[in-house]
Amino acid sequence: MISTGSIRTVVGIIGNVISFGLFLSPLPTFVNIFKKKAVEQFSPVPYLATLLNCMMWVMYGLPFVHPNSVLVLTINGIGFFIEALYLLTFFIYSPRRLRLKVVGILAAELVFVGAVMGGVLGGAHTHHKRTEIVGILCVIFGTAMYASPLSIMKMVIETKSVEYMPFYLSLVSFLNGVCWTTYSLLRFDLYILIPNGLGALLAAVQLILYFIYYRTTPKDGAKQNVELPEVTPTNTPVPLSAVTVQN
User: What residues form the membrane-spanning segments (predicted)?
Assistant: First the structure.
């Protein structure tokens, strides 16, 4: 008989694959930035937010914080690397004022993560306490990122159009949330369950809205570019966190 641990590992690997795809979803945006040698109206905030989210989940997955969380550690480590590349590209092709903004926010994030790490290692001397402290912070950041599509959902309802809510991003986000929610239930982990359960629920609502309003969506509407911070798995990329429209 297959053990629960083995099933959980398989589910976690599937979650890694799906989350990796979500992390790569903004790639066309950055290819466009590279070709035009300009960031135009795109915002760095989604990628800075995702970078912070990844750093917190990497901390959560460390053996001295929450043992046996290799799959959480790997996908968020990969996500951190990808987001860092996005931000480097953004930094290279942005004007000086925007560069200073990126550097300032990034510095604040690094100071914050360093302070949390120092506090956890210096003040919490058990895995349980360290897991609790870092886990609560991960839930806060993960939930905030998963809640970001609410403005897009509001727009869909008001305009009766799904033009700026891509179906496949919503579908993959739903599968990602379901996968990591299942992972958290196979060996109960409340801190992974809360943000991913919420993410699966919100993505399901997006899918329902899509099927309600796709018939009333203009077929010749303006083009769209969708920026994802992608959340991360146990925190996963959150699609539709920022949408820019080009006329």
Answer: 6-24, 45-65, 71-93, 100-121, 133-153, 165-186, 192-213
Beta pairing, strands 242-245 & 224-227? antiparallel
Three-class DSSP category at 224: strand
Distances (CA, A) of 240 to 52, 61, 88, 112: 18, 26, 21, 26
Spatial separation of the C-alpha atoms in residues 16 and 79, rounded to whole Å: 10
Residue 177 tokens read as 């949330």
Which amino acid would we find at residue 245?
V
Helices (H), the chain: 4-24, 27-36, 45-61, 70-93, 96-123, 127-146, 150-159, 167-186, 190-213
CA dihedral over 213, 200, 235, 237, signed as positive or negative: negative
Tokens of 132: 């609790």
pLDDT > 90 fraction of the chain, expressed in percent and rounded: 55
**For residue 22, which of 180, 152, 193, 191 has the smallest C-alpha distance?**
180
Per-residue pLDDT tens digits for 128-162: 999 999 999 999 988 877 766 777 888 888 888 88
Identity of the amino acid at 70: V
* Residues 242, 45 contacting (CB under 8 angstroms): yes
